[in-house]
Backbone:
């Protein structure tokens, strides 16, 4: 079966750094997405990785290791507005997008 | 601004009373998707259109139907809503059809079934 694993919930402090991990077991791999979803709202695109390594975009970075079936999203200089769910999604060999259930990130002052 | 629009944002219906949710896009994307998302769960793909080609997920109940009359619009019809159909319904679009393309989401319609 196809599976995406993420922690259900994480807590971090404003101004700190947090790393949200994602592991996947899919039939093939054609890329990995990270989306941010605030409560009651739609997901918004954050990043896409298809090659191994780190992609940096301002305060957010995403890392991929295809051999380990592993990715992480790194959030720096956390702000209260970063409180949201972060969803990992993987495109498999049939170009189907497999979604994780998301990690709820709680930021405390 | 190019965008994905969903109407209404909140929909309340009675058990068994048909309801239609709408989605429109100004991105001129080929592909449109309908997802169902329940609280703290992953979005679940119901169906998608590549242009006019309709693709139904194997586990999408027959109670859910869709129409795409033109490139810009797509509708989700729930013929006889049950209490278990209460959820957020998300419309998304992508440009090329392969799922390596980024999907862009509308704001969602939250459906309540009484």
Residues:
């Amino acid at each position: 079966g196809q599976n995406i694993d993420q922690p259900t919930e994480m807590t971090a402090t404003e101004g700190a750094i947090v790393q949200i991990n994602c592991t996947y077991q899919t039939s093939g791999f054609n890329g990995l997405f990270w989306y941010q979803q605030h409560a009651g709202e739609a997901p918004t695109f954050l990043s896409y990785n298809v090659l191994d390594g780190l992609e940096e975009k301002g305060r957010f970075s995403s890392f991929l290791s295809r051999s380990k079936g592993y990715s992480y999203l790194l959030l720096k200089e956390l702000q209260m507005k970063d409180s949201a769910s972060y969803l990992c999604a993987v495109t498999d060999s049939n170009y189907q997008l497999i979604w994780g259930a998301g990690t709820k990130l709680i930021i405390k002052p | 601004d190019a965008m994905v629009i969903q109407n209404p944002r909140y929909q309340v219906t009675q058990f068994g009373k048909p309801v239609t949710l709408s989605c429109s896009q100004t991105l001129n994307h080929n592909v449109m998707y309908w997802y169902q998302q329940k609280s703290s769960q992953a979005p679940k793909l119901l169906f998608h259109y590549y242009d006019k080609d309709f693709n139904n997920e194997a586990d999408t109940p027959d109670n859910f139907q869709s129409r795409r009359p033109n490139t810009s619009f797509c509708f989700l019809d729930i013929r006889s809503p049950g209490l278990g159909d209460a959820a957020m319904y998300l419309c998304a679009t992508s440009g090329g059809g392969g799922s390596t393309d980024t999907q862009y989401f509308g704001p969602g319609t939250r459906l309540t079934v009484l």
In short: Chain A touches chain B through 24 residues (CB under 8 Å). Chain A has a mean pLDDT of 94.
